[in-house]
Amino acid sequence: MNKISIIGTGSVGSTIAYSLAIMGMASEIVMIDINSEKALGEALDIRQGTPFCSPCSIYAGSYVDAEDSDIVILTSGIARKPGQSRLELAQTNVNITKSIIPEITRHAPNATYIIVSNPVDILTYTFHKFSDLPENRIIGSGTILDTARLRARLSEYYNISQSNVHAYVFGEHGDSSFIPWSVANISNVPILECDKLITTPGIEKPKLDFVDIEQYVRKSGGRVIARKGATFYAVSISVCHICKCLLGGVDTTMTVSSMMHGEYGIDDVCLSTLNLVGDDGIRGKVNVPLTDEEVAKLRLSADTLKDVIKNLEI
């Protein structure tokens, strides 16, 4: 019996609820939104399809209904507009998050919280500073989506299953993110050697352009927003993956945003590196060996976020 509450029933929150129901991951899903009619409509629409899924109770509710939640997912806030950076949303969504924190933590003090709203690293930091929850139970979705985009792109290059691609995006979920290519591999073949070591008869592979791939990953969200107005499918699947790992009982590594305490020389900021996630939230960090250049990029990403935090009221 797993109970998951979702705050915010816009495109992302509603798609997460739908995906959770399809996957049969929760026996109870609570949808909470300041627009109660929207929440009621979304819950009703999903609920009427559940006879063909695993049994699940899905309903619109208030913070009180989140009591005894195993997981609370925050998707509330102002959505990013075409041409707008995630960091430009900062103060508005910080204020919204600060207003939500005491209300939800009062009723669901033992839940693990997944922060999805943008700018996700800033809001994860806000959650750490403004709530009394243990650090391990505050998880920012971070660059798990960027990492999924990267793996999807590399799998296209090599015409190979995404599950064979092991590569990550570190840093801010935004413009200062980067790919530590030194640890990227496909089935244990270092990415720098894949062109000569992975051969598929009859298939010509384009030359791997690291700069192009990094730009592709970094700009994917903006491209989707420009074309269809919002991103919600890929991020929803990514958040459901986090939920699956929280409920599965076996630790899994993933790039989610968490508080840094001196790792790679970075302190007092939330960004994405490789974390161990299990049934107690973030169980620890996997400090993969980075090159000096990659450490410098990670520190630059941290400084970018700290510069924004300095100018915010948190």
UniProtKB/TrEMBL annotation:
Its main location: cytoplasm. Residues 3-140 form the Lactate/malate dehydrogenase N-terminal domain. InterPro entries: L-lactate/malate_DH, L-lactate_DH, Lactate/malate_DH_C, Lactate/malate_DH_N, Lactate_DH/Glyco_Ohase_4_C, NAD(P)-bd_dom_sf. It is an enzyme of class 1 (oxidoreductase). It catalyses: (S)-lactate + NAD(+) = pyruvate + NADH + H(+). NCBIfam families: L-LDH-NAD, PRK00066.1. This is L-lactate dehydrogenase. Residues 143-311 form the Lactate/malate dehydrogenase C-terminal domain. Pfam families: Ldh_1_C (PF02866), Ldh_1_N (PF00056). It comes from Ruminococcus champanellensis (strain DSM 18848 / JCM 17042 / KCTC 15320 / 18P13). Belongs to the LDH/MDH superfamily. LDH family. Homotetramer. It is found in: Cytoplasm. One of its GO terms (molecular function) is L-lactate dehydrogenase (NAD+) activity. Pathway: Fermentation; pyruvate fermentation to lactate; (S)-lactate from pyruvate: step 1/1. The keyword Amino-acid biosynthesis does not apply. The active site is at H173. GO terms for cellular component: cytoplasm. Beta-D-fructose 1,6-bisphosphate binds at R151, H166. Allosterically activated by fructose 1,6-bisphosphate (FBP). Its EC number is 1.1.1.27. Keywords: Allosteric enzyme, Cytoplasm, NAD, Oxidoreductase. GO terms for biological process: glycolytic process; lactate metabolic process. Catalyzes the conversion of lactate to pyruvate. NAD(+) binds at residues 8-13, 33, 38, 63, 93, 99, 116-118, 141. Substrate binds at R80, R86, N118, P119, V120, D121, D146, T147, A148, R149, T231.
